[in-house]
Design goal:
The complex is a heterodimer of chains A (114) and B (114). With 114 residues, chain A is mostly beta strands. Chain A has strands spanning 5-7, 10-13, 19-24, 31-37, 44-50, 53-57, 64-68, 74-78, 87-94, 104-105, 109-113. In chain B, strands 2, 4, 5, 9, 10 and 11 form a six-stranded mixed beta sheet that branches. Chain B has a five-stranded antiparallel beta sheet with strand order 1-3-8-7-6, with no helix packed on it. In chain B, strand 6 and strand 7 form a beta hairpin. The chains are: A mainly beta (114), B mainly beta (114).
């Protein structure tokens, strides 16, 4: 067990709604990265938070936003949901030190947009 | 930015045979190459990784090779077993002060036939 947890497990929303997904990082990790994994695809990087600051962003529109808290847990918010937002959302935590980052994934939140 | 190509997309092998999955990357600055295994409905799990200062790494039945000149790296699984059946993702990341996002390939669905 990696120690990274996510909630909720599953979520169903309708187009135009807003959603908040949550991630608790592994103990000792101060960096959280969020990925979107569409069906049959590899995870795609959304953004990363390091010590409560956004530390890099992938090719996702501004309606995808995030937050990291002092305990290093994180939230992903998506506004104005679209059908294509249906995917598995994964967060991964890492220690944020050293030259390489070994990332440990949570179980994911399956978002369905109808 | 980095682009990772992964082949094949599907692979079927007989139990006991070897399986090889290949990835190429585009960014010569990439220096960390992890491989993840994702079973159906579960989180990606890191199974092995290789850093740019070595050409090969082995862990029991799993090995990874890296050719930085050609910008490709491969996963080798020997003596395959039915429990090796899963989707495998390669990833690459360029160094950036110790916290950089992973760029994933699209995955290889490995089926080991008993």
């Amino acid at each position: 067990e990696t120690g990274v947890t996510q909630s909720p497990t599953h979520l169903i929303k309708t187009r135009g709604q807003q959603v908040t997904l949550r991630c608790s990082s592994q103990s000792g990790h101060n960096t959280v990265s969020w990925y979107q994994q569409a069906l049959g695809q590899g995870p795609q990087f959304i953004f990363q938070y390091y010590r409560e600051e956004e530390n890099g962003r992938g090719n996702f529109p501004p309606r995808f936003s995030g937050l990291q808290f002092p305990n290093y847990s994180s939230e992903l918010n998506v506004n104005a949901l679209e059908l294509d937002d249906s995917a598995l959302y994964l967060c991964a935590s890492s220690s944020g030190t050293g030259m390489y980052n070994e990332q440990f994934f949570g179980p994911g939140t399956r978002l369905t947009v109808l | 930015g980095e682009n990772v190509e992964q082949h094949p997309s599907t692979l079927s092998v007989q139990e006991g045979d070897s399986a090889v999955i290949k990835c190429t990357y585009s960014d010569s600055a990439s220096n960390y190459f992890p491989w993840y295994k994702q079973e159906l409905g579960k989180r990606p799990q890191l199974i092995i990784d290789i850093r740019s200062n070595v050409g090969e790494k082995k862990d029991q039945r799993i090995a990874v090779t890296l050719n930085k000149t050609a910008k490709h790296f491969s996963l080798h699984i020997t003596e395959t077993q039915p429990e090796d059946s899963a989707v495998y993702f390669c990833a690459a990341t360029p160094w950036n002060s110790g916290n950089t996002p992973l760029v994933f390939g699209k995955g290889t669905r490995l089926s080991v036939i008993a």
